[in-house]
Amino acid sequence: MTDTFESLIAAGAAADVTGWDFSWLDGRATEERPSWGYARQLADRLRRAAASLDIQTGGGEVLAEARTFPATAVATESWPPNVLEATRLLHPRGVVVVADPDEPPLPFADEGFDLVTSRHPASIWWDEIARVLRPGGIYFAQHVGPASVFELIEFFLGPQPEARRGRRPEDEAAAAEAAGLEIVDLQTARLRIEIRDVAAVVYLLRKVIWWVPGFTVEKHRDRLRDLHDLIQRDGPFVAHSTRHLLEARKPPA
């Protein structure tokens, strides 16, 4: 029997949204992955690093996929539930998790790390990244690109022309260079997302809170009902995420 609107809403509202493990969406939503394999490349770089820093690590899920860490390995995170989850995952692996508000300055000395990484940072403080990198050190990250999942965001918020212009990879590369870093590699991808039920929508908007600020089931029930009816009539709701892989180097002394 097909789940009702109310049962789907209840399922999405009850799901645990701690951390950045999206496995709850299995069978409810799919997203293509970039061809470059960020987690695999990250693991290889960690294996070769002397001191690493992962910024805005979330629940530490992606970082924890690595098999080997350098002797000095640190991760930062701001959201308390994620700090707890990252600590649980990473401390047994020898990675220190530091609660940090994601605002400058980073709580580390100058030139402390030869590898700084981040997957989907909400904010990027290039001067701080450059400061904590050693000469010759690398910043390696996968960033969210422009207008990512805006089909869903604009379904709830209406047209967002100004926000669509943010997070352009060429702008981020220019900001990195302005902070004194050299761009080594920049790749982009546009990836298909299929959302199969409204429970997945509730889960996502509770988890990725900056997509629809202030989202609640009660406040947005009418649009959730519209989206449920649309999926029932036409099949999965299709959106597109954008990603870019960015590697930058601090010039050798």
From TrEMBL:
Keyword Metal-binding: no
Domain Methyltransferase type, chain residue ranges per copy: 53-140
Recorded superkingdom: Bacteria
Protein name: SAM-dependent methyltransferase
GO biological process: methylation
SUPFAM superfamilies assigned: S-adenosyl-L-methionine-dependent methyltransferases (SSF53335)
GO terms for MF: S-adenosylmethionine-dependent methyltransferase activity
UniProt keywords, alphabetically: Methyltransferase, Transferase
Lineage of producing organism: Bacteria, Bacillati, Actinomycetota, Actinomycetes, Propionibacteriales
InterPro entries, alphabetized: 23S_rRNA_MeTrnsfrase_RlmA (IPR052939), Methyltransf_11 (IPR013216), SAM-dependent_MTases_sf (IPR029063)
UniProt-listed PANTHER family: METHYLTRANSFERASE (PTHR43460), METHYLTRANSFERASE TYPE 11 DOMAIN-CONTAINING PROTEIN (PTHR43460:SF1)
